[in-house]
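Feature request, filed as a ticket because there's no other form

It would be nice if the structure record came with a short human-readable summary line next to the tokens. Right now we just get the raw output. Example of a typical job, pasted below so the devs can see what we mean:
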Amino acid sequence: EKGKEVFHMVVEVPRWSNAKMEIATKDPLNPIKQDVKKGKLRYVANLFPYKGYIWNYGAIPQTWEDPGHNDKHTGCCGDNDPIDVCEIGSKVCARGEIIRVKVLGILAMIDEGETDWKVIAINVEDPDAANYNDINDVKRLKPGYLEATVDWFRRYKVPDGKPENEFAFNAEFKDKNFAIDIIESTHDYWRALVTKKTDGKGISCPGDSLSDSPKELLQKCNLCEGSLTV
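Raw output as currently delivered:
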């Protein structure tokens, strides 16, 4: 059971920082680099009362939210990126760090009409990790944190002149088992992507120059880094 809930996470944005760093899926080997909008480097505004991102933010490798797949829960297609993770532990991680996280739950954000799942997880190395086993533990042990998470995701684009984001399930967090099901389905979409069953529309993957075996893709790029589970 334990192995099923622990996944690798590539840290893109350390907590409290503002630069919108992300796995560049269209660049060879998918480096982590800062997003550019209209020719300018992108930063997330400090959204009162928060400072930058309020968790270590990143992605689970070997996952992909397929823009050609209409999600039955949200009614919207995927955002063409690996699945996002908010890591809630006490340590501020380093950009590019690969950590093992225990999945606790998931939020279904809808960003400009696209499904953009946000996995809630905790670093397995966190001193309190043993106390967190499902989403209700976050509610109990970090009161206000999940509400702040919804608030942050709802409003973070407003200072850039965008509308508030919306959520499926009335912005309720789904539990660990639901989250793991979503991660596993995005892993299936990733597998279809790297084996060329799905058109990635410009996503660069070493599979372009290797055989189709996902084993050979491991360790080659951030999107495929290491493995999904530990």
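Something like this underneath would help us a lot:
The CA atoms of residues 89 and 126 lie 6 Å apart.
The first helix runs from residue 2 to 5.
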